[in-house]
Amino acid sequence: MEQKKSSIVLVFREFKPHFLMVLVQVGYAFLYFITEASFNHGMSPFLYVTYRHIVAGVVMFPFAFFLERISVPINMNFASLQYTSPTFVASIVNVIASLTFIIAVVLRFAN
What we know:
This protein is mostly helical and 111 residues long. It contains 4 helices and no strands.
């Protein structure tokens, strides 16, 4: 029994990034279902976005305050808006994951 538990732990360690990515995608799917249900019940998209940011701020504040204490990504995002167009900034957010993968491959962090 102990060997089986040990092998499960090893598999989880090996595939932890994959499991976490699946978890993130499931979370996004759940978010879209909630969003669609809210809009179908007549909620204003502007009110929904406001509520979403309030909830995200309340949930993330303890982690940000006690673990990070700085918000470099958000500051960089708004600073980049000053120097480029909003269209470029919005599109580059979608490219971050692929650029991170390419950098990981170049630095030999990815298999």
